[in-house]
Please model this.
Amino acid sequence: MDELTKKCIEKRIDIILKEFDFEKRRKEYPEECPCNGIGPCHNIEDLNCFFCYCPAYDLSKPEGGCKIGNPQGKGKWFERLGHEVSDRIWDCGECTYPHQKKIIRKYLWRLFTGQFEDKI
Ligand code: SF4
Ligand code: SF4
Model:
């Protein structure tokens, strides 16, 4: 990939990240946040809302799961009592992985370039 294309893609990614910054979204589109009125879903610096829903969540099983091995070690099984499909469900409530800019940048880079190595 030539340098101009690379710069162009990086610039677009920067624009997306800026657009999905939590503070910006909170002011401009508060109604779009499932936590609207309660606060951000996670108290981390530079929370980014691009992946409100984690792309690594495993939807192939009724109980869910983490397709990438729970990178922060904060996901856990939530035991459900009396549920018909499964007695447990994968709970990502404590994991901030999909809300970090560097992670989103990595996913977008892969999406735009098809390159799976960590370029950024
Ligand atoms: S990522 Fe969190 S703070 Fe952002 S829109 Fe989704 S629930 Fe709200
Ligand atoms: S939020 Fe964290 S634990 Fe949950 S699926 Fe994504 S990376 Fe895995």
In short: Residues 3-19 form the longest helix (17 residues). Residues 55-94 form one domain.
